[in-house]
Amino acid sequence: MELNLKKETIPYYEAVSETPFSFETTQETIVPDYCQDVARVVDTTGMVLVHNKEMTPDGRVEVGGAIKATVLFIPEGGTDLCALHLSIPFHSYCEGRNLASCARYTVSAKLRGIDSRLLNPRKLLTRAEITLEPVGYCQKEASLCTAVEADESCGLQFLEECADTTVITDVLEREFPYTEELGLSAGRSGIQEILDTATHIYPADSKIVGNKLVLKGIIRSDVLYKDQEGALATLTQEFLFSQIVETSASEESGMAKATFDLTGYEYLIGTESEPEDTHAITMSLHIRSNVEVLETKRLRFLSDLYSIAKNVVMATQPLPLVEDVRSFTKKQNMRETLETAVAVRQVCHAAVSCGTCTCQVGEGMATAQIPVTIKALYLDENDAVLLAEKNILVKGEMEAEEGSIPHIVLHCPGEITGTPTPEGMEIRFTLEFWMDTGKQVQKLCIADASLEELEPSAQRQPSVILRKFDQSTRLWDIAKQYRTTCADILAANQVESEQAIPTDKLLLIPRRKI
After folding, report:
1. Do the beta carbons of residue 278 and residue 228 sit within 8 Å?
2. Per-residue pLDDT, 46
């Protein structure tokens, strides 16, 4: 006889990370007529901007965008640093076995490396390597057996369990503009020309208030410019921003994880009200936010059942859970020496870029390794502008339980400073590890069950059963083995709870009541 199982369905999204995909793109550029002939390329920087993405019929994600690059160079017959700004379009595909089945997906892009070389004084070849990191979100359902309908004569016994799990309930993508003014102090010389810029966006905080999700982030802008006297100078400022989106997540149990990407940016000298103000820069950004909305849910379900009167044929299914979801940060102060072949008179500008993290969990610790690139523009004793570069592998350790699934990202917030040393220069900066972690476990849940009549041999039972109670065995398992109930065992032994059962005495197992 089939049992009527009452079930509850919990919908959620499962994040599916695909292997990052890297590709190379090149572009030949004719130096514009307004620029002087190029004598020497000093450095090339860039930012990847993803403009569009879509799923193709064959299950690939098509990604299009551009690299906004800056080539810093010394012109022929000159010594001043000059800049050439380029836009390098790209078009590629992310291969992914699981992306085609995903209802939603995101693609983040990183510039792994970029460089330019002279083909002749009026022509440059720029090569860039891009890494695309797709993440898909598959719609899933967890089916929970919460109750069983059956006649009381069957003597069914149920084992109900409770568990907390954190699941992704929504995935949001929003684009919004952001404009801010960067200002120089009155004591500094005004800006003659903006040579290069770098924009970094870090998530700061998230909070659900009512049906609104408030996302906060930090924008750090680094500007390399030439002042009115022709000297190289830098301007670094940070800004706090917020974005509000609607959500159905609970204020008590909901949370969010956000990442931010640039889809476009522009830096101009002056302000809207004073366009000739050389002590101010207007920064205009177009930002895309990718948000995972998570909720911690309390699940109640039946994990086991038996009958004291009949035989139960039961099937179970695994119930995947994510417990103890936490987010935290850890800062690490860094001091690195960049050796140079010539003496350094002045460090003009320093930058730090972080690569993709690899992580291993073992012995209660998560060990992360992230490649980091340090660059610095400097003047030698003859005031020639040169570049020093160093690649290091940064390691960080954080507490993590066995079975946890950590995700670690490395940022470089705050100021980066450089000081000349006898060997070259010392670069000081702060790295910040951002870690999200949760423990993945599985519980068993009843999937199907039916009743059968007992075999004659199973109906015979000794009148008295004595056995020693082992605390490693649940009282439920003993009651199920002898077709009795936990309540009858406790009553027969005159104890109030399972925890109160003595382990140094024999436990009386009463005969079942049919």
Report:
1. yes
2. 96
What gap in Å lies between CA 278 and CA 284, rounded to an integer? Answer: 17
Predicted pLDDT at 248: 86
What whole-number distance in Å separates Cα of residue 475 and Cα of residue 359?
41
Task: Give me the mean pLDDT over the 305-328 stretch.
Answer: 89
Burial class of 172 by CB neighbour count within 10 A (0 to 12, 13 to 18, 19+):
middle
Cα–Cα distance list, 174 to 179, 258, 287 (Å):
17, 11, 8
Reading the block at residue 327, the tokens are 């987010």
Cβ-based neighbour number of residue 266 at 10 Å: 12
Q: Are strands 465-468 and 506-509 parallel, antiparallel or unpaired?
A: antiparallel
CB distance 325 to 304 below 8 Å: no
- Predicted pLDDT of residue 324: 87
- pTM of this prediction? 0.87
Q: In degrees rounded to 5, what are phi and psi of residue 401?
A: -70, 155
Confidence of residue 97 (pLDDT cuts 50, 70, 90): low
Bridge-partner residues for 376, per DSSP? 350, 388
CA angle 276, 279, 285 (to 5 degrees): 85
1 pLDDT more than 80: no
Give a three-class secondary structure readout of 363-402.
CCEEEEEEEEEEEEEEEECCCCEEEEEEEEEEEEEEECCC
- 63: alpha, beta or left, given left = phi > 0 and alpha = psi -120 to 50? beta
Which is it for the CA torsion 248, 249, 251, 252, positive or negative? Answer: positive
Structure tokens at 417: 């400073």
Average pLDDT over residues 296-307: 93
DSSP-derived 3-state class of residue 489: helix
For residues 255 and 294, what is the distance between their CA atoms, to the nearest angstrom? 5
pLDDT tens column, 445-461:
999 998 888 776 655 66
* CB neighbours of residue 278 within 10 Å: 16
| Whether the Cβ atoms of residue 49 and residue 24 lie closer than 8 Å to each other | no
pLDDT at residue number 457: 61
CA max distance for the chain? 109
Residue 458, pLDDT score? 56
Helix-, strand-, coil-residue percentages of the chain, each rounded to 5: 5, 70, 25
Do residues 194 and 269 make contact, with C-beta atoms less than 8 angstroms apart? Answer: yes
Q: Give residue-wise pLDDT tens across range 214-251.
A: 999 999 999 999 999 999 999 999 999 999 988 888 88
